[in-house]
Amino acid sequence: MPKAIRIHTVGGPEVLRLEDLPVADPGPGEARVRHAAVGVNFVDIYHRTGLYPLPLPSGLGVEGAGRVEAVGPGVGGVKPGDRVAYMAGPGSYAEVRNVPADRLVKLPDDIPDRTAAGMLLRGLTVQALVRRTYAVKRGDVVLWHAAAGGVGLIAVQWLKALGATVIGTVGSDEKAARARAAGCDHVIVYSREDVVKRVKELTNGEGVPVVYDAVGKATFDASLDALRPLGMLVSFGNASGPVPPIEPALLGRKGSLFLTRPSVYHYVARREDLERGAAELFDLVRAGKVRIEIGGTWPLAEAAKAQEALEARATTGSVILLP
């Protein structure tokens, strides 16, 4: 019987349980995918802890890559044998699962399964953030927090391909080296440097037009203060905890700032947007403009260890489970 990671209560990594989980034949509009690799993301931790509540018991994991084994009635876009990747509802921490077929994207032959499982959610997130939430243009100076993380390393490379100047923040010298290797023009080690002061020095006192912040509570105030008037804070994660409520008037006092909280799922809800975003991502990867770094792999049964490493910010690049 296929194995899957399940949770029956919220809590720490210890609540993850490897269980036998029967998989039914795919229903209308579904495809059954046997995973070759599964992506581990911060949203999985938010689900596990209850920050983003799920009906329990539940599977975990929203990203995977593998091969279609069977399709249900009405499915015409994929067929058994196709290599695919997806981002969908929780349940990818499994050997096999059924997925809505309209969430699957076919993989080019020259993109390996592990690469695909480590880049689709992160890559589509970056595509949405830098191409649509705030359309970065050549010459923009951008501040990106956690520049050596799984999303950050993809973002830095993508931003350089767009012609931006990238200021990245990291927590250690080792991560600073990784961020620079990805293309960061300036790296701030936030554990010993004043982020706002350095940003203002690097921009002649002006600040940046956009800050991308997946860290949350620990960086929110600095993100606002690093913006120039009319700048935009793109807050898209809670790695350090959720941001406390703020008064909208604060944005006015700090320079008529814009604040947005995007979710990639809204940006790819339409099939045509999913296909367009994935095609742009695949093209950049195949052209060598964006390299996907796999920062660590764990067996499916050790999903708790993978989450512990990610939660402790002990990883760089993408984290992968191997069923």
Describe what you observe in this structure.
This protein is α/β, with parallel strands linked by helices and 323 residues long. The protein has 2 domains: 3-119 and 292-322, Medium-chain alcohol dehydrogenases, catalytic domain (Quinone Oxidoreductase, Chain A, domain 1, Alpha-Beta Complex), CATH 3.90.180; 122-264, Rossmann fold. The protein is 30% helix and 27% strand. The chain contains 11 helices and 16 strands. It has helices at 42-49, 113-117, 120-133, 150-161, 173-182, 195-202, 220-225, 248-253, 264-267, 271-286, 303-311; strands at residues 3-7, 17-20, 30-40, 58-59, 63-71, 83-87, 96-100, 104-106, 141-144, 165-170, 186-189, 208-213, 227-235, 258-260, 294-299, 318-322. Strands 3, 5, 6, 7, 8, 15 and 16 form a 7-stranded mixed β-sheet that branches. Helix 3 packs across helix 4 and helix 3 packs across helix 10. The mean pLDDT is 95.
